[in-house]
Specification:
The protein is of the alpha+beta class and 157 residues long. It has helices at 12-47, 85-89, 115-120, 131-153, and strands at residues 57-60, 63-66, 93-99, 103-109.
Length: 157
């Protein structure tokens, strides 16, 4: 003897409205994740720069001198902030734009012409990655940020 189950579905309009709202809130959460995550990556990239080796700038008679304190400790290749221009210019190119119907992309970097040479190296200079290190060191924090944002969105489920 077959069993029959009758399902009466009411509230189709309310369900449809809830789904539309959840898609919109998920899109907004995605934008926040991309925006805040890219800012985290930029701040981590700026932290990878070390100070000029050898110490402080001392001004004497209108000229700038550097007081060096050798010997230096051996460190892996790391970009050195000589003038601070590259570290200070990170984020001057910053754009968040939609991709497709429900995605977002962040573009960030600098307009300085030598930035790629520092990041990837040249035949005369070893690479000193700063953006790559910033992205790697910010991965865990971006994952936590994404989890928090998605929990806000999916709270109603």
């Amino acid at each position: 003897m077959p069993h029959e189950i009758t399902v009466i579905f009411r509230g189709e309009k309310e369900l449809q409205d809830a789904l539309i709202t959840s898609v919109a809130s998920a899109n907004a959460a995605t934008r926040r994740i991309v925006e805040r995550g890219s800012l985290l990556m930029l701040s981590e990239a700026k932290r990878t720069f070390r100070k000029r080796p050898g110490g402080q700038i001392t001004a004497k008679s209108g000229r700038t001198y550097y007081s060096f304190k050798p010997p230096y400790n051996a460190v892996p290749p790391q970009p050195t902030s000589r003038s601070g221009a590259l570290a200070g210019s990170l984020g001057t190119v910053y754009q968040i734009s939609p991709v497709g119907a429900d995605g977002w992309i962040a573009r960030f970097g600098t307009k300085l012409s030598y930035a790629a040479a520092v990041e990837y190296g040249t035949r005369y200079m070893a690479k000193e990655p700063y953006l790559g290190k910033g992205v790697e060191s910010a991965k865990a924090r971006v994952a936590i940020l994404a989890e928090e944002e998605w929990l806000k969105v999916t709270r109603w489920v």
